[in-house]
Design brief:
alpha+beta
Length: 323
Amino acid sequence: RVLFRSQALLEEREEQEPIWIGVDSSNIERANALTSEDRTVIHLSNLPLADKAISVGWTFSTVVLIPQLTSSWTPILDQERVSSEQTAIEVAIGQLQALRPLFGSRRVILLADRWYGTPGFLRACAELGYSVLIRLKSNRKLYRVPVRLHPRGPMPKDGALFQGKRPETHGQAEEVCSQQQEALGKVEISRWNHLHFQQDRLLEVSVIKVEREKTKDSKRDPRVSWFVMLDAVVPLPEVGNHYARRFSQEHGYRFLKQQLLWTRVHVRTPTQFERWSWLVAVVMNQLYLARELAQVVYRPWERKARPVTPQQVRRIMPSLLPQ
């Protein structure tokens, strides 16, 4: 793990520039590896290509740097296997704790999917000094500041309920921003402050609702999206655009699996696969550091106006390595 915490990955970032990182987990299917240790039940998301929605294998938690523009350029800061005795959130918290000295006094903003919008994970980020922009499940229950309703009796522990999927619980938003975008039509962003989870009443969070007019209103393209934040470091009009950068990690996973053959290696034990994962991560980081060192060779069908991709840099690496 020490190999990934190189200060070289952060050298090109200005000291006053915030560091955007992403955390997510990916499943490695090992259905036929009957003698492999510590396999767990994993979810397969590539339906209907997969026959079943679940299989067995290993899960890896990865922390990456998020690029300014959505791309596959996601150098890996840390990568760790989630054992059968752990959860992905527990492993992610440990990774964020281990990486904290790398960032020093810099502002760090974490982007994550809705599975990480839990009281325990948010509490850990708050204690570490990370700012967050995390998707929130619409059925997640939060509560407002308690208000005494009767002159006698104890003070209530929770105020009025707030739940995304129940509009009658929303009330008046503290801040509202409306935008007109050509591709998405009218985009309305609302923020509710001073909310808390019942599991952690001392942790104050803000909930943001992003409602887009021109969408398919499907699972992949919802009309209404919910987010949770610990502070107001991300301006309200920029919430949607900044969160869209998180999908760079999905593109990075695809590059690791398809081009760097992360899932194609034939090993038996999880320890062997962890070593292979470290090697793949080092290769990814070398490509990231070498992206400005040479003229990329383009294929006839590739557009030169687009930013350089990891695969294009990978083609030129045989000539760079001897140098």
